[in-house]
């Protein structure tokens, strides 16, 4: 067997650390630690709030966005965030919990944001995701649609799209699909 | 083909070459190394754990390297031998189809190599606790997911106990991957032609050398197709499968949790994908492709597996016997065009959340409030944390931001440590002033 143990002792002497003792208890996981750090480094601003159904579980939370400009101004949008133990290797799972009219969010609440899927990298953090989410409401993107009808409306007739957004946010129907009222 | 096994004529002669290496020092062997009987005994008595579906190569190599006590833990619960395995998984014969892999492989090797004992365990690596892993000398793994690698890595690092030399278990990790060197957006369309021509072998000495978590950034995440492509403009059969798997499943079968090992679930996805493919006039959706896409299977290449298995098992042999220097600490292999390998020493990451900050012991007064404890962290020379947030595995003790969480955890500040924690419990502390996080094990005094 290698002399790794004497290597370990040398390293330990060099660091002059004291010996570990005590029974093993559950350790804070790498994912938890990373989320703790990410949360601390968030910049939420006036338009965003977070809530934690179980404050001891920081891997599951809700983000509320209230855009203060753009076509979605006046709405209150809720997203559930689910972070798994493989974070930050895996991106957080984000879903809109309301049925809304948006080119990049489908009626099931799936969100098409590059950094949530194909462009996710472990160096990105929750703040990047949250900024990206906010951007979706300021600049809905018609070229990468998840709700094709909404994207067509946005591309072909911006004014009609704006009216549809207002109607849907007030709880009305657009193209026979009824939407949830999300106004403040 | 018959299941008969040829037994070599001279069973003793089989080990001659191995004993040559172990009985005299070579140019690279350590100067303190004692070759001969003692080393050979150490080798034969080493209890080795193979974690993950190691396959035939590693098992065969371990047995032929002279290890006598090999344990295998394989998470493939439904892992039975399929006819498509026979071309490369050479321990299986046609008559074995349908039988569990771990057991057939163990029986074959035991029969072929006299004196070796293989103990298969069919289950998840996560089912076993530290006491189980403590019994082994070295862990070799050929795990198929990063999640499982991170788990075994942090478990072995967490086991290191300075009072017990036996608690430091070298981890030898091997893996193959199927991503091209420049995996970009365009390549995603060619997903299916990616095969496992690349691989790596690495040696991890828990807490001493760079660990799997330190090297996490080197694992490229699986190539994902943008959701919008899947939803609106599928071009490839894989896109239709992803659609059925990601979108249609949620819509139609919201209440069922998708299980990639459930045949009915796979069939449903396959049929749904087929329908969608027909709508878009896309050809090529097959059941096998469906399984491949949802389980993210990369076609295995026998030669890559053999190279990686040979590399990892010879590391185990070198570590167990000290006959030669071991790999420090990462060998990458690329076999797409010719053969290329490169070996380098991956560095330990100072801020590695697993090995970079082993818990330090700290004595605390159990009657101290959490608020006072936090203040004291700001004064202590070894910490000097001014704005810390902290938690245990199950409890958020105090989190400064976002405000909603701060409000929730503020009442904890006036509670005594003994009301929040158990004696000896570990807390993890983050502070914006530091790029690394800290772990402390709090002992009540």
Which helices and strands appear, and what pairs or packs with what?
The complex is a heterodimer of chains A (184) and B (445).
Chain A: H1 4-15, H2 30-40, E1 48-51, E2 60-65, E3 77-82, E4 93-96, H3 126-138, H4 148-156, H5 158-169, E5 173-174, E6 177-178
Antiparallel strand pairs in A: 1-2, 2-3, 3-4, 5-6
Helix pairs in contact in A: 4-5
Chain B: H1 16-23, H2 37-45, E1 47-51, H3 55-64, E2 69-74, H4 101-112, E3 117-122, H5 130-134, E4 138-141, H6 146-159, E5 171-177, E6 198-204, H7 227-232, H8 237-252, H9 263-279, H10 287-294, H11 302-321, E7 330-334, E8 340-344, E9 360-364, H12 370-379, E10 389-391, E11 396-398, H13 403-409, H14 417-420, E12 425-430, E13 438-444
Parallel strand pairs in B: 1-2, 1-4, 2-3, 4-5, 9-13
Antiparallel strand pairs in B: 5-6, 6-7, 7-8, 10-11, 10-12, 12-13
What does it look like?
The complex is a heterodimer of chains A (184) and B (445). Chain A has 184 residues and is an alpha+beta fold. Chain A has helices at residues 4-15, 30-40, 126-138, 148-156, 158-169; strands at residues 48-51, 60-65, 77-82, 93-96, 173-174, 177-178. In chain A, a hairpin with a 2-residue loop joins strand 5 (173-174) and strand 6. Chain A is elongated, with a radius of gyration of 22 Å. With 445 residues, chain B is of the alpha/beta class. The longest helix of chain B is centred in the last third of the chain and has 20 residues, at 302-321. Chain B folds into 3 domains: 13-221 and 299-344, 3-Layer(aba) Sandwich (Rossmann fold); 227-294, Arc Repressor Mutant, subunit A (Orthogonal Bundle); 360-444, Ubiquitin-like 2 activating enzyme e1b. Chain:  B, domain 3 (Structural Genomics Hypothetical 15.5 Kd Protein In mrcA-pckA Intergenic Region, Chain A). Chain B has helices spanning 16-23, 37-45, 55-64, 101-112, 130-134, 146-159, 227-232, 237-252, 263-279, 287-294, 302-321, 370-379, 403-409, 417-420; strands spanning 47-51, 69-74, 117-122, 138-141, 171-177, 198-204, 330-334, 340-344, 360-364, 389-391, 396-398, 425-430, 438-444. Chain B has 14 helices and 13 strands. In chain B, the strands form 2 sheets. Chain B has an 8-stranded mixed beta sheet, sandwiched between helices. Chains A and B meet through helix 1, helix 2 and strand 1 of A and helix 6, helix 7, helix 8, helix 11 and strand 10 of B. Chain B: Pathway: Protein modification; protein neddylation. Chain B: It is an enzyme of class 6 (ligase).
């Amino acid at each position: 067997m290698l002399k790794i143990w004497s290597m370990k002792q040398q390293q330990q002497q060099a660091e002059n650390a004291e010996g570990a003792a005590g029974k093993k208890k559950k350790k804070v996981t790498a994912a938890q630690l990373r989320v703790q750090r990410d949360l601390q480094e968030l910049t939420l601003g006036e338009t965003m709030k977070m809530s934690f159904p179980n404050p001891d579980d920081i891997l599951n939370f809700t983000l509320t966005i209230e855009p203060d400009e753009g076509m979605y101004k006046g709405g209150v949008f809720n997203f559930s965030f689910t972070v798994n133990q493989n974070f930050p290797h895996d991106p957080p799972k984000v879903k809109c919990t309301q049925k809304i009219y948006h080119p990049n969010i489908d009626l099931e609440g799936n969100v098409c944001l590059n950094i949530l899927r194909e462009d996710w990298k472990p160096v990105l953090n929750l703040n990047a995701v949250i900024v990206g989410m906010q951007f979706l409401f300021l600049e809905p993107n018609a070229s990468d649609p998840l709700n094709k009808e909404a994207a067509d409306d946005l591309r072909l007739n911006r004014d009609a799209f704006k009216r549809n957004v207002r109607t849907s946010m007030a709880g009305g129907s657009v193209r026979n699909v009824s939407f949830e009222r999300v106004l403040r | 083909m018959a299941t008969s096994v040829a037994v070599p004529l001279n069973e003793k002669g089989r080990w001659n070459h191995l004993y040559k290496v172990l009985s005299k020092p070579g140019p690279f062997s350590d100067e303190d190394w004692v070759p001969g009987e003692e080393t050979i005994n150490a080798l034969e008595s080493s209890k080795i754990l193979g974690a993950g579906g190691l396959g035939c190569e590693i098992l065969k190599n371990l047995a032929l390297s002279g290890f006598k006590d090999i344990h295998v833990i394989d998470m493939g619960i439904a892992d039975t031998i399929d006819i498509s395995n026979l071309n490369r998984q050479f321990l299986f014969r046609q008559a074995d189809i349908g039988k569990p892999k771990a057991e057939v492989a163990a029986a074959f090797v035991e029969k072929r190599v006299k004196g070796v004992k293989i103990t298969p365990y069919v289950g998840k690596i996560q089912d076993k606790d530290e006491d189980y892993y403590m019994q082994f000398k070295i862990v070799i793994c050929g795990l198929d997911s990063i999640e499982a690698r991170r788990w075994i890595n942090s478990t072995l690092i967490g086991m290191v106990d300075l009072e017990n030399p036996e608690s430091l278990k070298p981890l030898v990790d091997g893996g193959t991957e199927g991503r091209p060197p420049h995996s970009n957006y365009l390549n995603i369309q060619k997903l299916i032609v990616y095969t496992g021509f690349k691989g790596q072998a690495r040696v991890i000495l828990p807490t001493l050398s760079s660990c799997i978590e330190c090297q996490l950034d080197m694992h490229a995440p699986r190539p994902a197709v943008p959701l919008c492509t899947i939803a609106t403009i599928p071009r490839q059969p894989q896109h239709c499968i992803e659609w059925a798997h990601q979108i249609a499943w949620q819509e139609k079968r919201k209440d069922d949790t998708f299980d990639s090992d459930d045949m009915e679930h796979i069939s449903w996805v396959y049929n749904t994908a087929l329908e969608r493919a027909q709508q878009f006039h896309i050809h090529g959706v097959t059941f096998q492709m469906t399984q491949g896409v949802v389980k993210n299977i990369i076609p295995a290449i026998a030669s890559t597996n053999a190279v990686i298995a040979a590399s990892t098992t010879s590391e185990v042999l070198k570590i167990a016997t000290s006959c030669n220097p071991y790999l420090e600490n990462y060998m990458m292999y690329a076999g797409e065009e010719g053969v290329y390998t490169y070996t380098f020493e991956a560095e330990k990451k100072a801020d590695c959340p697993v090995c970079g900050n082993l818990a330090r012991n700290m004595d605390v007064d159990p009657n101290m409030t959490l608020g006072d404890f936090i203040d004291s962290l700001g004064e202590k020379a070894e910490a000097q944390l001014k704005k810390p947030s902290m938690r245990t595995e199950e409890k958020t003790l105090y989190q400064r931001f976002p405000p909603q969480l701060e409000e929730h955890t503020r009442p904890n500040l006036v509670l005594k440590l003994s009301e929040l924690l158990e004696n000896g419990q570990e807390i993890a502390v983050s502070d914006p002033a530091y790029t690394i996080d800290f772990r402390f094990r709090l002992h009540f005094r």
